[in-house]
Amino acid sequence: MTCAFQPSEFMSATPETLGLAMLQRDPHAWRLDGATQQAAVHDALADGSRTAQALRARFAGLAPQQIACELGVPIELSDDDPMVGSLWRFAEYTPRPARIRLFGRGLAPLDRAMAGTLAQQALGGATLQDVFVAHELFHHAETTRTEPPVARRYRPTLFRIGRWHWRTGIAALAEIAAGAFAQTLLDLPCHPGVLDLVAMNAISSHSHRTRA
Ligand SMILES: [Zn+2]
Question: What spacing in Å lies between the alpha carbon of 35 and ligand 1's midpoint?
Fold first, then answer.
């Protein structure tokens, strides 16, 4: 498969545009009408930024890794295969016990692809590890607060029988919020959703090379 986009074109996209693109890749997003999709993206971005501002006020001047340490969330560097099913993993958060894992082999192709001006455009002075630890810190913040999770604030109906409704959450909204959190915490030039686009190119060429 080839990707016909240039990631550098997306660096100037607004968080709203990138967030909407992320939402529309969610398998349940089509169940929300256009105005509700825009409202959901706006809410998710605002939640991520607000949560980062609160944490930044609490831990002024600390890097995400140091904030994780202060919050008692260990960070492990894993050498595991980053691919699980069709999912390529860069990092993950598990709540009990709280832990962040960074997948070294998952991050490597993205790290190589982010050389030169692309890194400066997307990350400013931050590193990929900063961004992914910050992203996972949002998931930690979400699990340790009382508000309903971002992914469950918009719950379209899957199907109905009589008065009974079966509803679903929208997982992409938590990812949009986590990106906004990382962008605000690290003062990134753009929403880190742009890294997904860089990664798609990098990983598809990486897997072609390793299969060759
Ligand atoms: Zn996430």
Answer: 24
Distance CA 33, CA 54 (A): 32
Half-sphere exposure of 102 (CA within 13 A, CB side): 21
Tens of pLDDT along 96-134?
999 999 999 999 999 998 888 888 888 999 999 999 999
What's the maximum distance between 2 C-alpha atoms anywhere in the chain?
Answer: 58
Ligand 1 centroid–CA 175 distance in Å is 5
User: Rounded to the nearest whole angstrom, what is the distance from the C-alpha of residue 60 to the centroid of ligand 1?
Assistant: 23
What separation in Å is there between the alpha carbon of 93 and the centre of ligand 1? 8
Distance (Å) from CA 173 to ligand 1 centroid: 10
Distance CA 83, CA 90 (A): 9
Q: Which of 22, 71, 67, 27 is nearest to 180 (CA)?
A: 22
CB-based burial, 130-141: b 16+ in 10 Å, e otherwise: bbbbbbbbbbbb
Report the pLDDT averaged over residues 9-31. 89
Nearest to 201 by CA among 129, 113, 106: 113
Residues 6+ apart with CB under 8 A from 99: 73, 74, 75, 76, 93
CB atoms within 10 A of CB 145: 11
Residues around ligand 1, an ion, CB closer than 5 A: 175, 178
